[in-house]
Design brief:
This protein is mainly alpha-helical. It has 14 helices and four strands. The strands form two sheets. The chain has a two-stranded antiparallel sheet with strand order 1-2. A two-stranded antiparallel sheet has the order 3-4. α2 packs antiparallel against α3, α7 packs across α8 and α7 crosses α11.
């Protein structure tokens, strides 16, 4: 009788969908499409639709894309929901997280909301170790103050996302996109993924440091340096030595695990 009541109630089956910290709109769209909850192209189209974005109440100067504003969390979605309903739910969660205190903190740092979320999205993508987020943030803040280019690989990858094959080449670092922080000064034009609460906090509360460089240890953590000379030594030790990289890169391991899935 209980099963019959559910069948005849018209209630759709809810699917728990987890948006992970750092996922971008392309990855989210693919995941939702694989569960037959949306058509990816329609999802991406709405994420960039000015009229729809305006309707979500993201401020007087709404972003040109919902990238960065689909808050990472577990959502219970069903196939009776429209794409608009799904996106609205994710943006509403972001709005509940971004309060007046964060708005004021960002303003005190000379950042508007969009700039703060852009910076948070970079921090989210740069490290696999949560405790490093404030230090990563400090490097970016220090560079911004000195008007140094941020030179963040993940921003470059996002700018070529639809043709990126997993290998970042010199030609990619020289590509002219508004996301390539090797060629543009300051922050990229917008977020490169959807940051979680901890990354947003790190963006607004960086560690107190004078670091200007960092290089991966190939396990999700980084070596931080104050001078270019020290950075060059760290690159030689951790990146140019094949033995230091072999089988240790957390990004490579993650890619292999995702392929198996």
């Amino acid at each position: 009788l209980e099963i019959l009541a559910v069948i005849t109630s018209g209630i759709s089956l809810n699917y728990p969908i987890t948006i992970r910290e750092g996922e971008n709109i392309f990855e989210i769209g693919s995941d939702l499409e694989s569960k037959k909850l949306v058509e990816k192209e329609r999802f991406l189209s709405l994420c960039r639709d000015p009229k729809f974005i305006q309707s979500l109440g993201l401020g007087a100067s709404p972003p040109s894309s919902l990238e960065g504003y689909l808050f990472p969390d577990t959502y219970f979605l069903n196939r009776s929901m429209s794409v608009q309903d799904i996106l609205h739910q994710m943006v509403k969660k972001f709005q509940a997280t971004w309060g007046q205190d964060l708005e004021e903190r960002a303003r005190g740092l000379g950042l508007n909301q969009h700039q703060a979320i852009t910076l948070a999205s970079m921090i989210e993508k740069e490290t696999g170790a949560g405790q490093e987020r404030p230090l990563i943030s400090s490097v970016f803040h220090n560079r911004l103050r000195k008007r140094m280019r941020l030179q963040s690989d993940p921003t470059t990858v996002y700018g070529i996302w639809e043709r990126f094959d997993g290998n970042l080449r010199k030609a990619d670092l020289e590509s002219k996109t508004p996301y390539n922080t090797y060629s543009v000064t300051g922050l990229p034009i917008g977020p490169i993924g959807n940051p979680g609460k901890e990354a947003i906090h790190a963006a607004l509360y960086p560690a107190n440091s004078d670091f200007l460089f960092f290089v991966s240890h190939n396990d999700g953590t980084h070596q931080f340096s104050r001078t270019y000379e020290d950075h060059v030594l760290a690159v030689r030790q951790f990146q140019l030595d094949p033995k230091a990289r072999e089988g240790k890169s957390w990004r490579d391991l993650s890619r292999v695990q995702n392929q198996k899935k």
